[in-house]
Amino acid sequence: MKNIFKITYLIAFILTGAIQVNAAEKVDLLKTDWSFKGLFGKFDRGSLQRGYQVYTEVCASCHSMKYVSYRNLFEPGGPEFTEEQAKTIAASFEVSDGPNNDGEMFIRPAKLSDKFVMPFENVKAAQAANGGAYPPDMSVLAKARSGGVDYIYSVLLGYEDPPSGVTLDDGVYYNKYMYGNRIKMSQPLMDDAVEYGDGTKATKEQMAKDVTTFLMWAAEPHLEARHKMGFKAILYLIILTTLVYFSMKKIWSRIESEV
Amino acid sequence: MSDHEYVPSSKFGKWFNDRLPLLSLASHLTDYPTPKNLNYWWTFGGILTFCLITQIVTGLTLAMHYIAHADMAFESVEHIMRDVNYGWLIRYIHANGASMFFLAVYIHIFRSLFYGSYKSPREIIWIIGIIIYLLMMAAAFMGYVLPWGQMSFWGATVITNLFSAIPLVGEGIVNWLWGGYSVDNPTLTRFFTLHYLIPFLILGLVVLHIWALHVPGNNNPVGIDVKKPSKDTVPFHPYIVIKDGFALLMFMIVFAFFVFYSPNILGHADNYIEANPMVTPAHIVPEWYLLPFYAILRSVPDKLMGVVAMLSAILILAALPWLDTSKIRSAVFRPLYKQFYWILLVDVLILGYVGAMPAEGLYLLIARVATAYYFIHFLIILPVLGFKEKTIPLPLSITEPVLGGMPMASAVKKKESLN
Fold first, then answer.
1. Distance, CA of B346 to CA of B403 (rounded, Å)
2. Is B120 exposed, middle or buried (CB count within 10 Å of its CB: 0-12, 13-18, 19+)?
3. Which of A168, B73, B122, B269 could form a disulfide with B148 if both were Cys (CB 3.0 to 4.6 A apart)?
4. CB-CB: which of A222, A234, A247 is closest to B242?
């Protein structure tokens, strides 16, 4: 009998060892405090609006966001620009529409109902303009990388000179946190790359945090509604469970007294 | 159902019941005598029924908005997540519901293993259960393909390619499954059709599963036959209904926690990248609930034998009522089996863990040892144990499992020799 326990312990020991070996290979991602984590997590409105600014002024020249609409910018739970602001933002982009009654395609300013205008016509055009690498669509990027927002935040700040012995091709950069450490995107964020309207100092870290927050919202636009409903749902379930527990005790007391 | 004759009190009720005995059925279900010593491990049958209904209801709703087309599936899922009213909620319930379903079914199966619920006279219940489990895996696998993300596409490619291991006709079968020469739109549409169909097959089998259960009645933690109805049993309603209800609510709290606070933790990040036949993900892994079988598949160096091993690992369960030669059902009275039971559980957890890891080096070695042990447990340990094991004497009834049980003379002897 004791042997059997020994074997079980041995297996458990090997397993924990394997987990530790595996963990040692990973680089620890940079951490920052995200306001949207936790039971009551909400987006920081200011951060979302600044993040949108960083996205449009820096990322959007290469990265599309094809599942997000301009109307989302004023909807509750998001950056919550005013409807007028969102209209102005939309109108600053041009979309191809049509055909009209003459059978012609035409260009018009974007409306609230339009999806974010893409920087390139198609994937091939994006690749051609970016040295063969396709800048991924950013609509769900925050959910499409293991490590999520921490990973994106880390990559944005992870540019370094390559360690000795690592040679990089032209147009390839070294990044401490990128999978494989090689990235075809040049360092996108430098201090003061954008000028924030609300007076916040545009450090690299601040911009990385803001734009990552914006990406999280773009990937999960109903996150705030989910957290709010979750709290109510779980509270309701806990109360109901308690009531049912006491009802159960009462009903079963008829039986247990007989035993 | 011949416990007693039910006669409806109203005239219309009697008229109706003579023609379609629905009221008799309802009466049977509420009065159904259930052993009163059932513990909370027995509540997972009800929980599983809840899971099935939840999956069907949320699935129907999703199907109203989902588009089964290779060019539009991914986008339509994002449409559900963003623009459909409460679409995010419905999809997260459905996606996490699959995991909760498997969590519950694994507890249900391991409860059966511990208390010997698969033994005579409950073999048919057990075998129907195994078929349901197989169908669940098929439904879950095809459901995971539908969002048409990278893991969907490559998971489908890996799993359907397994059929190419079949000699001579393998390639043909794979092309037939795909509806072409690679996983593509025809594969997606047929997977959607089958994913829609299977839950209703499962529903039908669940009815048979419960019907077959109601013939001999429930097993119980002591594992001895109970007279029914007797003072060892309670009517299903209200005693079991409220107990199942309480357990279901506890389960729903866990479920809700995943849905509202970690809806993507059980999924793979790569599935939020749209399927791309030109880019293979670094590690292709199935959902967590299929990992033990994936580990068995990869632990065998030969492709065909790997597939055979994986299928055998599931099908061997169907033979369990005959592989386990012990007449004693509950592990409570089988001191050795109890130890082996826990080792098997650890073994399966290890298989699940190495299934998620790359198949190389130490992981591969562990996977091979764990796979071998899995089969040894069922093919060698269980049959031999039935003859060799000295069991603890059974009580006479579940009402007095410890106190008044009059052990048989032979059992007393056994106990002495144990000491």
1. 34
2. exposed
3. B73
4. A247
Whether this model's pTM surpasses 0.95: no
Smallest CA–CA separation between A140 and chain B, in Å?
Answer: 7
Place of tokens 């990278």: B150
As a whole number of Å, the end-to-end CA separation of chain B is: 45
C-beta atoms of A145 and B263 within 8 A: no
Cα separation values, A122 from A55, A66, A115, A134, B321, Å: 19, 11, 15, 10, 59
**ipTM beyond cut 0.85:** yes
User: Which among A8, A219, A245 is the nearest to B346, CB-wise?
Assistant: A8
pLDDT, one tens digit for every residue, chain B (419 residues) = 444 578 999 999 999 999 999 999 999 999 999 999 999 999 999 999 999 999 999 999 999 999 999 999 999 999 999 999 999 999 999 999 999 999 999 999 999 999 999 999 999 999 999 999 999 999 999 999 999 999 999 999 999 999 999 999 999 999 999 999 999 999 999 999 999 999 999 999 999 999 999 999 999 999 999 988 888 899 999 999 999 999 999 999 999 999 999 999 999 999 999 999 999 998 899 999 999 999 999 999 999 999 999 999 999 999 999 999 999 999 999 999 999 999 999 999 999 999 999 989 999 999 999 999 999 999 999 999 999 999 999 988 887 655 444 444 444 444 444 43
Question: What helix, strand, coil percent values describe chain A, rounded to 5?
Answer: 50, 5, 45
Please indicate whether, in this complex, the C-beta atoms of B81 and A222 are within 8 angstroms of each other: yes
- Alpha-carbon distance of B56 to A181, in angstroms, equals 44
List, in sequence order, every residue forming a beta bridge with A159; answer none if it has no partner: A175
**Which of 252-291 (B) contact A at CB < 8 A?**
252-253, 256-257, 259-261, 263-264, 269-270, 272-273, 282
Instruction: Please indicate whether, in this complex, the C-beta atoms of A251 and B269 are within 8 angstroms of each other.
Output: no
